[in-house]
Amino acid sequence: MPDIQDNAHRYFATSVALVTTDGKSGKNVMAAEWAMQVSYEPMLIAIFIHDSPTLWNIKENGMFGVNIAADDQAEIVNIAGGYSGTEIAKLAIPQTFQTYAGKGVPMIKGCALACECKVMSVQEMGDHVMVVGEAISATFDEKKSPLIYTRGNYRKIGGKLASGRKTVRLSPKAFAEFKRMSGGQFVLKAAVAVVRDGRKTLFVRMESSSSWMLPAVVPERGTDYKKAVSLHLKSIGVQAQIEGIAGIERMMLKSGKQQSLRANFVVFSCTANAIKEDDDNNDNKKGWFLHPPRNLLLKSLLLFQKA
Ligand SMILES: Cc1cc2nc3c(=O)[nH]c(=O)nc-3n(C[C@H](O)[C@H](O)[C@H](O)COP(=O)(O)O)c2cc1C
Questions:
Q1: In this protein, which residues make up the domain named Flavin reductase like (predicted)?
Q2: Quick one: how far is CA 35 from the chain centroid?
Q3: pLDDT (tens digit, 9 = 90+) per residue, 227-258?
Q4: Which CATH number is 166-306 given?
Q5: Is the CB of 53 under 6 A from ligand 1?
Q6: What is the dihedral of CA 154, 159, 161, 167, to 10 degrees?
Q7: If you count Cβ atoms within 10 Å of the first and of the last residue's Cβ in the chain, which end, N or C, has fewer?
């Protein structure tokens, strides 16, 4: 038996679609919180609805409208969701739904997003029916915010959350090097090795600046970070055992007034196998330090080690 707490379903937070249809059951609108985009290309939208005039119309004419309600439309959402088309002609109630003609179904004015869909698949899914449609049009209103439905209440979207990234200021040279590492990606996603040999930690000089940094590599998208770290350490002549991920640090790297780069560093704890004599501080590119060079970037990345 599944172990499901009472009312667990109320703890999702969704937008609400006003699903519009036309057919023998008449022009109709229903509220559906289970409505979402499920593919970018083609743009596919799934709705999950029960056996009702909305479904009958959809099966009949193969079209439906997904009008994502704006946060000033809770009233009409209530009506669309509170009555069935078998009971009243909802769209004909005076001064309630403002409609315009779509390509095959009526559409609702004033919504945050409006998509017209051609049915691609209809499939029973538990006690509901999944209808997937391919969007043949999609328009949005920048000024409108979607209404949110959760725990049986309608809500407005709150403020935007702070990014939570730690701001780190860098010299122009060091910044340029991280920027180059990012390969033009919006976020630099790097793996960093904290290689320990007893109480000493390995640092490497950054290529274009003289700053010290922990050995870092940008793994190819979708590849194993641990393996990428292992290969990178080998490539700089370091034999080390990789223990595992110590933590992940999300930063906003900044330089000057204008330059900024989002950076995620996945920090791996590693133990050096054996340091060759000539590796020990001699080649000017690597250095084993008892006390790490001081800067906020390194301090943050090394913090995980203390736990
Ligand atoms: C906020 C809200 C969300 C709803 N979401 C869904 C849903 O995702 N799927 C569904 O089948 N019914 C949902 N309903 C219930 C239908 O909107 C309701 O049964 C409606 O009367 C169906 O319209 P119709 O019978 O005219 O087709 C929701 C109701 C409300 C108020």
A1: 9-156
A2: 18
A3: 999 999 999 999 999 999 999 999 999 999 99
A4: 3.90.79.10
A5: yes
A6: 180
A7: N
Q: What is the mean pLDDT of the chain?
A: 95
Hey, which of 15, 21, 45, 52 would you mutate to test ligand 1's pocket, going by the most ligand atoms within 8 Å of its Cβ? 52
| 31 Cβ closer than 6 Å to some ligand 1 atom | yes
Beta-bridge partner residues of 197 = 200
Are the CB atoms for 131 and 49 separated by under 8 Å?
Answer: yes
Per cent of the chain over pLDDT 70 is 96
Amino acid at 48: F
Over the stretch 114-128, which tens digit does the pLDDT of each residue have? 999 999 999 999 999
Q: From CA 261, how far away is CA 251, in angstroms rounded?
A: 8
pLDDT digits (tens, 9 = 90+) for 211-224: 899 999 999 999 99
33 in ligand 1 pocket by Cβ < 6 Å? yes
- Tokens for 197, please give them: 């040999």
Neighbouring C-beta atoms of residue 100, cutoff 10 Å: 9
Q: Where are the domains of the chain?
A: 9-155, 166-306
